[in-house]
TrEMBL record:
Domain Erythromycin biosynthesis protein CIII-like C-terminal stretches: 378-482
InterPro entries: EryCIII-like_C (IPR010610), UDP-glycosyltransferase (IPR050271)
Membrane-spanning residues: 7-25
One Gene Ontology MF term: UDP-glycosyltransferase activity
Protein name: UDP-Glycosyltransferase/glycogen phosphorylase
Keyword Membrane: yes
Keywords: Glycosyltransferase, Membrane, Transferase, Transmembrane, Transmembrane helix
Domain of life: Eukaryota
Native source species: Decorospora gaudefroyi
Amino acid sequence: MAFIHRVITFGLIPIIALIALQLYSPETFHNARAIFQPYISSSRIRTFDSLPRSETRLFISAVTHWSHFEKIAKVAVALAELGYPITLITGRIFKNEASSLHPNITFYPLLGQDDKLTEEQYATMASLPPEEVALYRSRLVLVDGMSTTHDTLQQVFREFRDQHGNDRPLLSFYDVPVTGHLPILLGAPGIKPDVSFAIGCHPILLDSNDTYPFHIDKRPETGPDARAIHWKAYQDRHQDYFTRELDLAWWAKLREMGAIQDSYGSMLHAASALPDHLMMMGIPEFEWPRTDLRSNIHYFGALKSSAAKTREENLPSLWDDVAKAKREGKKIVAVSQGTVETNFDELLIPTLEALKDRDDVLVVATTVVVEPEDTLGFTVRGNVRATRFVPYELLLPLTDVLVSNGGFGAVMTAMSNGIPVVVAGSGQDKDINKNLVQYTDVGVKLEGKAPGVDKIREGVGKVLDDPMYKKNMGEMRRRLAAYDVGRVFDGVIREAVRGWAAGKGEDVL
């Protein structure tokens, strides 16, 4: 018994302490490492993580769209704060924002690519029937832009190899829609990262016999024929006009770039299936149950804003009215149309109309892309306050319901604050987000992009009157709080570095 006690005291406890120190206080860990390094430098044995963070450069690329860039930028900042040097690759339009994020972050522009649609491209879109517009835009972003993104990445990778050879791991992270990463993962000529990581700021895109395809507005089946029904739905999706045309264009582009395969899967699936690791925003409890969930999927919870930075900024003039309404016991309802679907007649204005007669409610409307006074048909009534921007990390703790068009980022932000939601919207990831909201009972799902005044009034009233939604969202908030973005990414990176070092034949502790 005494022997076992000594083993635990002098063996196990120090190891646990080392692991805890590395995870929870990396700066202290590396200070200690620096002290002991001279005594082991002559040995082939490296320290626990095999390469300090300050020598582990990360390449992170983001789509040139604000809703994507702001999320990927928060991941980059979390890792920069741990000491990682980062090259952040995105469009030139975000040069100022990217360059000012953190001293450890270096901006690198996408080469030879316009950051916005040209007048000619807008004219082409205007000439197309509605069903062709989405396909045209998707081809521009996901297929036609693939070559220049690939070329940019190859230039960055070449500069890294020229500087470090194979003495440093080449670690590349990409926002899932950055399809320029895919050719090299499918065998195109060029420098392939030692480890690749996709970052998904949406529910899982991977095909699964346990769920319907990503864009289908249905909850998974649960009966004995469920898997067969789901499989049939995927076969039908592959023959869907939009999916088929986009995949055909993608396959042709891959062959043109030298990524030759006997057969190609769907782009939607491949973007998440090809990397070594898939880093997923959110939590598994806010996903459909899957029996085929891959072991290389890592949830990292919600992205966090800097509340301290926000408090230093000037709050909008409506803030005093919000505080006053809260003191008077009124319910606060926040509504935003989002950054992609910006037709205020679909959700924002109908919400104002739906709640105009409720004296017990103050509605805070954010227009995001334009000033409220510049919006035609936008009328501010007695119980409405409107602004282009309001810091949600400060507003949502005071909010009782968030009315949203169902974007994943908005749902995660609400979940981080324990605020139930009323969600409308369609397209992108919105249909699956709405169904997950309904499935988990953290809010109310409304049908379509423009559910109408009556349905919005009914949905908001339901959430305000039934405490179940608040309780369920509070439980999700508790589960979400168990994840830390930096810690999750850091753990996966350190394991990747250890694997890289082991592959080079270097011993690691």
